[in-house]
Write a structure and sequence with these properties.
Blueprint (H helix, E strand, L loop, with lengths): L1 E6 L3 H9 L2 H27 L8 H8 L2 E6 L2 E6 L1 H8 L3 E4 L5 H9 L4 E4 L3 E5 L5 E2 L1 E2 L2 E2 L1 E4 L5 H8 L3 H17 L1
Antiparallel strand pairs: 1-3, 2-3, 4-10, 5-6, 6-7, 8-9
Helix pairs in contact: 2-3, 2-6, 2-7
């Protein structure tokens, strides 16, 4: 798992929080968790929406693995599996289609004709028995895979909202303390 932790970091801010009334502390803590939920929703949305990549069931399942969690009063975090981090930071590379690999099964399912060239880089070649050939006629069956950088894009869109979310949490706490 990888996590993005949201917390009040400096000693001065934590000391200030300790001197605030109980309602104010709860309001700030709840606002931090609400912001973590906003970040989670933004990351999910950016993982699913990409004009170059279709939405698949595995991508939907992966999006549901991004979770927001409240750890303590002033700490909340957004967690996601390492495979999504690797998807985000992966450099483009070739993957050879050899027997027994999951990617080979995926290519067999999605590329059905005898010889398929996708985007000038990926090549999938089939033999007589409908199996993917690793090497044929001097060419290798391979896919060119690229990453899907969605984390920075998702965080960039929600950074502006932190001030509003914290302000809303403080207003709710003030309103609650006046009762």
């Amino acid at each position: 798992m990888i996590s993005v932790r949201l917390q009040a970091d400096t000693r001065n801010v934590e000391a200030l929080f300790r001197h605030l009334p109980k309602n104010m502390q709860d309001g700030v803590g709840n606002a931090m968790y609400k912001y973590a939920e906003i970040v989670r929703d933004s990351l999910r949305r950016n993982l699913l929406t990409d004009s170059r990549r279709p939405i698949t069931s595995s991508r939907r399942e992966a999006a549901h693995l991004i979770k927001a969690k409240k750890i303590s009063k002033f700490r909340s975090e957004v967690r996601m599996p390492m495979k999504l981090h690797f998807l985000d930071t992966m450099t483009p590379h070739f993957v050879a289609l050899k027997r027994g690999r999951n990617v080979t099964r995926w290519a067999r399912k999605h590329y059905g004709s005898p010889k398929v060239v996708v985007g000038k880089r990926s090549k999938v070649m089939y033999g007589r028995r409908e199996g993917i050939l690793h090497e044929a006629q001097g060419f290798k069956s391979q896919l060119y895979v690229t990453g899907h950088p969605f984390v920075n894009k998702g965080l960039r869109g929600v950074r502006k909202r932190l001030k509003n979310v914290l302000g809303e949490g403080m207003r709710k706490a003030i309103k609650k303390s006046k009762r």
